[in-house]
């Protein structure tokens, strides 16, 4: 197990990289250059107490957190949030790396409307192999916005500074939401293949009677089987079907219940235990919420 280095302040990053002290204690734009890329991060795990939005160009190495690694290439963005464990390494033969990293502390946005919206930006919980890839035009838009943030905190700070900085951060995140949706659409054929894998995993889970032993399949189980973060999987499924991962699993379970009700004479309790429900009433409650009928009423209505 590697040692963990906990970085609490943005100023500590500046100090470690040999950069001047940040002009604002809660936000900083770091240009990625030889000084940054040449830093020896060592064989450590880093945990930061602030958000990071990074844009890198050029195949330069990889960053890892969780169980996945990602090799940076042209126009790649990665988002991390406070408390995520990260490791860094470099690839030999790298000639050039460029880009920027926007760092901002939760205290910067704490009293703003953005604070309550941060959880809606699910890409902060994506794994790094689910990074955002930008066109040149998209890169240009985001670079202009981060330049405005840098310009704002580089001036004399006044009562408007924080609000304007936060507004630009929110605009960046909203643009990235749009770009991720575009990426899902561009990868539609690939995502259809992934949806087929999702269906196969769910079918195998029930057909192998794993549900009897382990209960109903969870989003966590499905995402791990797909080697994806739960948030990315849910967003991919929602883009393809209009339902999130939990709803998709529930709908699969409902179809299983319907098939069992129509093709067997099993009692509702037998069906419930066979599908992994802890109590039969949980099946009945879910079924009525989804169909408007109890399982018995559904069976009678079809027969």
UniProtKB/TrEMBL annotation:
UniProt key word Membrane: no
Keyword Membrane appears in the UniProt entry: no
PANTHER family, per the entry: ARAC-FAMILY TRANSCRIPTIONAL REGULATOR (PTHR43280), TRANSCRIPTIONAL REGULATORY PROTEIN (PTHR43280:SF32)
Domain of life: Bacteria
Chain ranges of the HTH araC/xylS-type domain: 196-301
Alphabetical list of InterPro entries matching this protein: Homeodomain-like_sf (IPR009057), HTH_AraC (IPR018060)
Gene3D superfamilies recorded: Homeodomain-like (1.10.10.60)
Record keywords: DNA-binding, Transcription, Transcription regulation
Name this polypeptide is given: Transcriptional regulator AraC family
